[in-house]
Amino acid sequence: MKSLVLVLCLAQLWGCHSVPLGLGLGYKELNCDDPETEQAALVAVDYINSNLLQGYKHTLNQIDKVKVWSRRPMGEVFEIEIDTLETVCHVLDPTPSANCSVRQLRQHAVEGDCDFRVLKQNGQFSVLSAKCDSSPDSAEDVRKVCPSCPLLAPLNDTKVVHAVDAALAAFNARNNGSYFQLVEVSRAQLVPLPASTYVEFAVAATDCVAQDVTDPAVCNMLAEKQYGFCKSTLTEKLGGEDVAVTCTVFPTQPVLPQPQPDGINIPSSMVSSATPESPPDAVVVGPLVVAAPQRVHQAHYDLRHAFMGVASVESASGEAFHVAKAPVGKAPTVGQPGVAVAAGPVVRPCPGRIRHFKI
């Protein structure tokens, strides 16, 4: 009997040592409010804001899910789902996103929904892949908070286009310096009472003097880009209209050369400095400019277009993370290719806390 027990013990010890060392068992799930989880989420939000060319900066609102995988040969990969909220700072505004106010519900808030894979290696976080989309709050929910508040209007609405043209003309008419040209219409709302159109738009300085311009088509953006952001209300009046516009001009932004990944030859026509002088319907992905589809009657700049064409760095390196399909009638297990599979981990508290408000 003692011999049988000894054999069983030896068999168990052999089984334990048969698993290769350093190959973890599947993934682990952290608390969504864990400091390390939040650090990975904040890196993801910074990645969003550094890649946006249009619209407004975003801020972290909630962490929905997180899984942490061991990565060969070292490091960990955080698979993380986060919710963001649009701020009032335009992407051209140099104000740090942490200092930007969140757009409130009564102003028709916009929420982002993102999936990220973030690598932690040697204590540093870096984004491997990103997938986002965003959408404004529903009209019904806005009406519950503020029945009389205006909703977002399509950016190509005829009233919106006219209001932007009138506001830009009024700004240039009183400007003694450079002539500014339109970069994008960023936001618009049609106000019922008094009948008016509220718009927000981005502008850029040109090599023309505002007071001397006769043909804006001959004006070119300055080599060292200087952008501005304007807010305007065009109010309809009997026999005419009244335009009120205020613009904030930001410091110049010198164009800095971007290093290219080793082994990638990119045609000069495809190289971009990742600045908003790119065509309005183009999205910069690293050094490449990827044409975005025409979006008719949009009321905001969807985050899904910020990362078009972004490929996972992990897939390029030959590593991937998969969820194993369990046989019918059996509980699923989770694992990585070439890694021993263990039972699914204990689920920890998620989603995490809401930092602002839920849409």
Written overview of the protein:
Its main location: secreted. Keywords: Disulfide bond, Glycoprotein, Phosphoprotein, Repeat, Secreted, Signal. It holds the Pfam family Cystatin. Residues 27-133, 144-255 form the Cystatin fetuin-A-type domain. The model is unreliable at 14-25, 259-294 and 311-342 (pLDDT under 50). The chain has helices at residues 2-17, 35-51, 139-145, 158-173, 313-316, and strands at 27-28, 56-70, 76-90, 110-121, 124-136, 178-191, 196-209, 227-237, 240-249, 282-285, 288-291, 333-334, 342-343. With 359 residues, the chain is α+β, with helices and mostly antiparallel strands.
Number of domains: 2
The secondary-structure class comes to alpha+beta
Q: Percent of residues in helical segments?
A: 10-25%
Provide the CATH topology of the largest domain.
Answer: Nuclear Transport Factor 2, Chain: A
Task: Note the gap between the termini.
Answer: 66 Å
Poorly predicted ranges (pLDDT <50, ≥5 residues)? Answer: 14-25, 259-294, 311-342
What is the C-level CATH assignment of the largest domain? Alpha Beta
Question: Helix count?
Answer: 5
Could you state the order of secondary-structure elements as H and E? HEHEEEEHHEEEEEEHEE
Q: What is the alpha-carbon Rg in Å? A: 26 Å
Number of strands: 13
Q: How is the biggest beta sheet arranged?
A: 5 strands, antiparallel
Domain Cystatin fetuin-A-type: 27-133, 144-255
Signal peptide: 1-18
Main location: secreted
Keywords: Disulfide bond, Glycoprotein, Phosphoprotein, Repeat, Secreted, Signal
